[in-house]
Design a protein that fits this description.
The protein has 522 residues and is α+β, with helices and mostly antiparallel strands. The chain has helices at residues 52-70, 114-120, 126-131, 140-150, 152-157, 164-172, 199-205, 227-233, 247-254, 308-319, 321-330, 334-343, 383-408, 426-436, 448-460, 467-474, 488-507, 510-521, and strands spanning 8-14, 18-24, 30-37, 49-50, 77-84, 89-92, 102-103, 160-163, 190-191, 196-197, 221-224, 240-246, 262-267, 271-277, 289-292, 299-305, 353-355, 373-375, 415-419, 440-443, 477-481. The chain has 18 helices and 21 strands. The longest helix has 26 residues, at 383-408.
């Protein structure tokens, strides 16, 4: 066995829109990286699904790319840690094979079932106190209820309801069929105090524990990579497989968020802010949700904006022909081109606003039918104004989330970090910092989710004695940003208008009316 200095740890992040695989040394330096994009499908308005086989192919292709780039001997590979989407679940048969597409975390097909859930938890705040989650049709529990009511044949055929982590670890050769609390947060199916399945919620869903994997701990060993999976992924046969955690818990580990007062905001397809909790007693409000941390036996507290990076991708795919051509000409990322264009519009985007609620507004209002859009458009606005408005709109929704943490966590946030692919542009990070109005640190490795998965695999396989030791070795900070005090009055006024437009539409039922209209005439 090579010395620890020569061991490497693989992190796999099977996300919503693609899979990232990275190979790290014991100092957290990236030695190889691969990425493969894959689609979601939307068979009806508000429904989001994904082909599990496409995700598996993405894992395999991204792994092969990372292995080829790292160009290391097989004996250097020590462990694999897996991060996967939370709240995205698959229906499997008795052979643990998919019966169809998975239902993705932002799928809104269960809208309308909230009242039935509330009827089972009639006391104010009872559901959240029990599960850690507000009542929402976006959590897996509501969608399983929907399946039982709307697709009883598929519900009856389903032997196993599982998150992606369990299914993909099994495809890799894992022998243990176990999940963990840090992967179950967006399922809305836990007894949060026990960090285990909630029998009350399971009864509401109409299922028993024997249709779910048992709950273990993050970083637990799951087995070793099989010969078949080794041939498909390019990783060495026999490498240790470990459960990682949910994607955002992995991001927290990869950002070093393992102490009270620390928080990170991952800006990816969605935006999720996560803070460490020593105890549930630290919670003093109800605008956030909480679950199991990637640190075994601990909790985290979270808030979200579910369409941040997805908004930028939407622009790229639907309206971004100019930016795609410019980025091809310059040989740079299309998102860098978009940020450059935004810098040519003054702060405030010449008076145009963008609401980034393209897959609902989450924290703090939990409004599943809210939708996005540009507001205040005039004939004088230019393309660059719209792009800047989109970046500022995303940052304004992030501020809504951050403010909820400051009010709902005892002691607030004293160490705030930004991570994720959306933070690779200093220009966008500065816009976020200015609008949120707080000092920000950025990590050397911005892909903290995949780093966190690798850290949990390294710890679970015995390469480090504790999460703290692994984080101390593998997580590094790269820089810091300060809010521009000259822009604070402008962005404070903009934020109040941003929230005012949301409340005007929500409080008068216009989002609900538009959702009904879309369902009726799609």
């Amino acid at each position: 066995m090579p010395s620890r200095a020569h061991r490497v740890f693989v992190g796999i992040d099977a996300g919503t829109t693609g899979c990232t695989v990275m190979i790290f040394d014991e100092m957290g330096r990236s030695l190889g990286q691969g990425y493969k994009e894959y689609p979601c499908v939307s068979p009806r308005s508000g429904w989001i699904e994904q082909d599990m086989e496409e995700v598996w192919k993405g894992i395999c292709e991204a792994s092969r790319k990372a292995v080829a780039q790292a160009d290391l001997p097989a004996e250097a590979y020590h462990s694999v840690g897996l991060s996967s989407q939370r709240g995205t679940f698959a229906m499997l048969d008795e052979n643990k094979e998919p019966l169809g597409n998975s239902l993705v975390w932002n799928c809104g097909r269960a809208v309308g079932l909230e009242e039935e859930i509330r009827a089972e938890f009639p006391e104010l705040g009872e559901h959240q106190t029990h599960t850690g989650m507000q009542v929402s049709p976006l959590w897996s529990a509501a969608k399983i209820m929907w399946l039982r009511k709307k697709n009883p044949d598929l519900f009856a055929k389903t032997r196993w309801f599982v998150n992606g982590q369990e299914y993909f670890l099994r495809r890799m050769g894992a022998e243990e069929w176990v999940t963990d609390p840090a992967s179950l947060t967006l399922n809305g199916m836990m007894d949060i105090a026990k960090l285990d399945w909630s029998d009350r919620i399971l009864t509401l869903c109409g299922i028993d524990r024997d249709r779910l994997p048992p709950v273990g701990i993050p970083s637990g060993r799951a087995g070793r990579l099989s010969r078949t999976a080794a041939e498909e992924t390019g990783l060495p046969e026999g490498v240790i497989l470990c459960r990682g955690a949910g994607d955002q818990q992995c991001a927290a580990i990869g950002a070093g968020v393992i102490k009270q007062g620390m928080a990170e905001f991952t800006v990816g397809t969605s935006g999720i802010m996560v803070a460490h909790l020593d105890s549930l007693d630290r919670i003093k409000g109800d605008k956030l949700w909480w679950g199991g941390h990637g640190v075994p036996g601990a909790w985290d507290i979270e808030g979200g904006a579910f369409s941040l990076g997805a908004c930028l991708r939407w622009w790229r795919d639907i309206l971004g022909a100019d930016e795609l051509m410019e980025s091809a000409r310059k040989g740079c990322s299309v998102y860098s081109t978009m940020v450059d264009a935004a810098q040519n519009s003054k702060p405030g985007a010449n008076g145009v606003l963008f609401h980034s609620f393209m897959a609902s507004q989450v924290t703090p209002h939990y409004d599943a039918v809210a939708r996005g859009g540009f507001l205040g458009l005039g004939l004088y606005h230019e393309r660059r104004d719209l792009i800047r408005a989109m970046l500022e709109g995303c940052a304004n929704e992030m501020r809504m989330v951050f403010d909820a943490f400051q009010s709902d966590v005892d002691g607030g946030i004293t160490d705030f970090r930004l991570t994720g692919g959306g933070t690779k542009s200093d220009g966008f990070v500065q816009i976020m910092t200015d609008i949120i109005g707080q000092p920000v640190k950025v990590t050397r490795e911005r892909e903290c989710t995949v780093l966190g998965a690798a850290i949990l695999g390294a710890c679970g396989s015995g390469a480090f004695d504790s999460i703290e030791e692994a984080v101390g070795s593998m997580v590094r900070l790269e820089g810091a940003f300060e809010p521009n005090s000259n822009l604070m009055p402008l962005y404070e006024e903009q934020h109040q208008i941003y929230q005012g437009f949301y409340k005007a539409a929500a409080d008068t039922g216009q989002y609900a009316a538009l959702n009904d209209f879309a369902q009726k005439f799609q």
